[in-house]
Structures are given as structure tokens and as C-alpha cells.
Amino acid sequence: MIDEPLVEKATEFVRQVFSDDASGHDAHHTLRVYRLARRIATEEGADAGIVSLAALLHDVDDHKISPETHATLARARAFMEEQGLSADEVDQVLVAIREVSFSENGDRPPSSPEAACVRDADRLDAIGAIGIARAFAFGGAHGRSMHNPDADDASTTISHFHDKLLLLADMMCTDAGRRLAKGRDATLRRFLDDFMAEWDGLR
Ligand code: ADP
Ligand code: NI
Fold first, then answer.
1. Cα(198) to centroid of ligand 1, in Å?
2. What is the DSSP letter of 64?
3. How far away, in angstroms, is 199 Cα from ligand 2 center?
4. pTM tops 0.90, yes or no
């Protein structure tokens, strides 16, 4: 049974895991994904316990944080086994975690409503006001330019908007995700429009 005290413990575990990460995978990203995924789950009628754990544990085996456990999701699995979850619950959470990743799943439909909720929540956190802030934080941390009108490669943060962020709204899997993505996508487009106008001295 995944009850609230267990969700509390998972939250504590995540805070420890991400205590010193600066790659854009901090505990706050995880907690935002958790809140959003719970909200989407209510609308979708998905299992709140599975969604909560999958959201909280979705990045603990990320290849940037824990490359040695990425393939097996060993950290998420070990946490759940220590907490005495049934094999079936552990499997459902691990499937949902595996199906979050953009690079590994792209547009392939998730295999459960729970996986759909977590995937949409993770992708929503990459767009809207928070998504813009994360993209420039990532760019700064990786020494990337904001923008370079002379380069048409993927080397700047603005190019990341075109290569990935502007595609995400069309890739939502739930009705709630689609609705939330609409507002966030409009925020991205308004920002890009302002950015370009200011770049050119027009606004
Ligand atoms: P996730 O693991 O959540 O699928 P990533 O690890 O790809 O996402 O990215 C984490 C955050 O960093 C996201 O907000 C993403 O938009 C941003 N990001 C990733 N790659 C770039 C890039 N090349 N330029 C700017 N931001 C990036
Ligand atoms: Ni994530």
C-alpha cells in the first residue's frame, strides 16, 4: 500500500539524493513534477500512490546523477523494496519512470494512465515560465550562449527552444496535460517573440 507516510519518506529520500546537484535535476524540479502529476492524476482517475512515487523517484537514477544505476533503476527499486512495496507496485512505478524520458521514448504512448501523468508533468516543467528559467539556468551552467543569429546549430539556449521545448505541447498524453501545456506553450512563444524583438532593437 502506498500511503501518505510512505510518500513523505520518498520526499525525504529525494531531498537527500539531490542535496548537491546543479544539473537542472534538483529536488525542486522533482517536487514540482510531483505536485503537477498528482493534480493531473486526479483529473485522469489514475492511481495517486503509483503516480506519487513515480514522480518523486523519476530522476534518482537519471544518467546525469547516477549513471551506474540508470539501466536498472536500482536506486528507485531499492528504496521501494526497503519500504516493503509489493512486487506489482514496484513494477508499476518502474514502468512509469522508464516511460518518462524524452530521449528514450519520444512520442511513443505510455503504457499506463499513471505513466502518462508523470510524463506529462515532467514535460510541463520544461515549458512555461519555469521551463524558460530552467533552460537559461542549464545554458549558463554549461557555458552556452543565449542566442547567436549567425549559427543555425544546436549550440545556444534559444536553439533549444526550437529543437525541443516548442514541440512538447503537442506531445502531451492526457487531457489535463494538453490544457496546461496550452498556456505554458503560449508563454514560451510570447517570450521568444519579445526576445527577438528586443534583440533587434524593435521593442
Ligand atoms: P529531463 O531529464 O527532465 O527530460 P533534461 O535533462 O533534458 O530533461 O533537461 C533538464 C532541463 O534542462 C530542462 O528544463 C531542459 O529544457 C533544459 N535543457 C536541456 N538541454 C538543454 C540545452 N541544450 N539548452 C538549454 N536547456 C537545456
Ligand atoms: Ni525530470
1. 24
2. T
3. 31
4. yes
